[in-house]
Each structure stands twice: as C-alpha cells, then as structure tokens.
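dumping this here before i forget
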Amino acid sequence: MATRQANVDALGRAHPPAGPDARIVSLVPSLTELIFDLGLGERLVGRTGFCIHPREALRAVPKVGGTKDVKLDVLKALAPTHLIVNIDENRRETVDELAAFVPHVIVTHPCTPADNLQLYRLFGGMFDRDAEAARLCTALQSALDDAAALRAGLADEAVLYLIWRQPWMTVARDTYIAAMLETVGWRSLPEKAQKRYPEFEWALAEQAARVFLSSEPYHFNDSHLAEVEALGKRPATLIDGEMVSWYGSRAVAGLRYLIALRRRLAGLATG
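structure:
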C-alpha cells in the first residue's frame, strides 16, 4: 500500500494530521474560503476582516484584525492549534510572533494556478479531507486543460492590468495575477519590473492589445472606462479582481471566468 505523502507547506515543513479537535485561524482571505469548501468551516475559530467568503457563514467567526495588522491578543485568546498564513499577504515579523504560541503555522505561497493542486492536497491531508481535496484537484485540472486548449487556438495578447488609480499601478509578470492571465494567453505588461506592483506611464499601453480595470484592490467601475481608454488609447474592459487574484478553491471558478472572457473578447461563441 502506498504511504501518504508528507503534508509539506511552502517552507518545506511537514505537518502531521491535525485531528478532529483542530482550531484554525486563517489570515488569508482566499484560503478562508477554501477551508469552507473543504467542509472545515466548523473548525475555523478566527479570520481577518478581509475574509468575506462565504459571507453568511463567516458572520459567526471572530475577526482578528487585518492580514497585516493582526491583533495578537485577540488571536491568542482564541487558542488556535493551526494558523494559515501566506508569504505575500502576511508580515513575517507578525507570523514569527504568532508562532510563539500557535503550535502549527502553515505557510502558503501559490504562484501559479497549478500550485493550487498541492495546496488542496496539503489541506486535505492535514485535516482529513482527502476526498474533498481530490474533487477540487479534478475540477482545477479540467479548467487548466480547457484554458490550455483555448490558448492553443488563439494568438497571445499583451495586456495592461490596472490595480490602482493615481498613481496608476499594474502587476509584474512574477505575480499570481499575471500567471492566471497567462493561462488563457494574456501576457501582462510590463515584461520586466523591479517591483511586483509597479507604477507605470501610459506610454506602456502602446504595447497592449487591451487594458483591464480590476475590481480590486481599487474598485474600478463603468465610470472609469472612458478615462482609461482616452489615456491608453486601447479598448478598456472591467474585470473581476477576485476571480483573477484569489487562489484556493476560487481558482477553479476564476479560470472558467477567464476562459469565458477571453472567448467573448475574441468574438468566439461562449456556449
């Protein structure tokens, strides 16, 4: 019989099975959603104010501050056994302080949509949700395959993905957002950047086929379309930021969303 693969997190640390009495605090909004989608909602005892899905179920879960301004005393009082953090979203100094009294700190760092496969297996293995994790893996792999098939039939396009206004900011190609876009053949600009979320000059739009206006972190809406098209001299389209930037279980719906959007903008039938 094959032995269970070690439940290894992003730092290479193996975690033992948690047991039914696990008390989980999540400092990562997209992974809070994953916890519920794996059927572990009743074990979640704390979350950030940015953890908003599933909305109704989270009303009963105490908040411990934000992803970066965590209230250590509030979190400690919840007596968690497991803490879920992310390399990009949480401060290392804060995590180190929390590790002093939380027995198990699970560090995550998905950089591409496919990285979610290991994330599902890690959580499934730790919290006895292997079947649920396997179903998510199957759904994600199907979406990845469909995205690859779509990309194979279309020429790649350079795109400018806006995340902030005044100063205007976009995403570098080493971000999860850029990796999501690239699955359907949208290559984000600039090609190279010193920062992961750089400011840019509008001359950059000359290299793009279109400009996307994300719904988060800045909430772009219909009122910004004309302004952006005038500045960029390229077609501008609103895009759901959660579908592009949230990893975990949202990656499945996110890929399906991007596939449908790429087909629509390419003039292909969506049915």
